[in-house]
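Re: [ENG-882] Designed sequences occasionally contain unexpected residues at chain ends

Forwarding the minimal case from QA. Structure tokens:
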């Protein structure tokens, strides 16, 4: 699943280095701008058949693939991060 998320982000941003550094801060490094972010949400919803409510997902979820993004999918793949709690 993590690899698929990375594939989607690389396709949207052309940032190939993400494959070797999934902990890269996508926001801080200006890899994910507002348009790419919207497209990412659309692609994730389509790819995994889920509904993402960005306002209900913790902001740091989107910072890196290693932060919470993949973990949210593993927690609840039908409703992205709906019940996610940091342990």
């Amino acid at each position: 699943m993590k690899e698929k998320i990375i594939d989607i982000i690389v396709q949207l941003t052309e940032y190939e280095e993400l494959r070797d550094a999934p902990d890269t801060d996508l926001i801080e490094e200006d890899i994910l701008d507002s348009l790419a972010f919207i497209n990412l949400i659309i692609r994730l919803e389509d790819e995994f058949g889920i509904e993402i409510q960005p306002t209900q997902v913790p902001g740091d979820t989107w910072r890196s693939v290693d932060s919470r993004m993949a973990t949210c999918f593993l927690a609840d793949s039908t409703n992205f991060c709906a019940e996610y709690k940091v342990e």
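QA comment: On inspection the terminal residues look reasonable. The radius of gyration is 12 Å. Proposing we downgrade this to a documentation issue.
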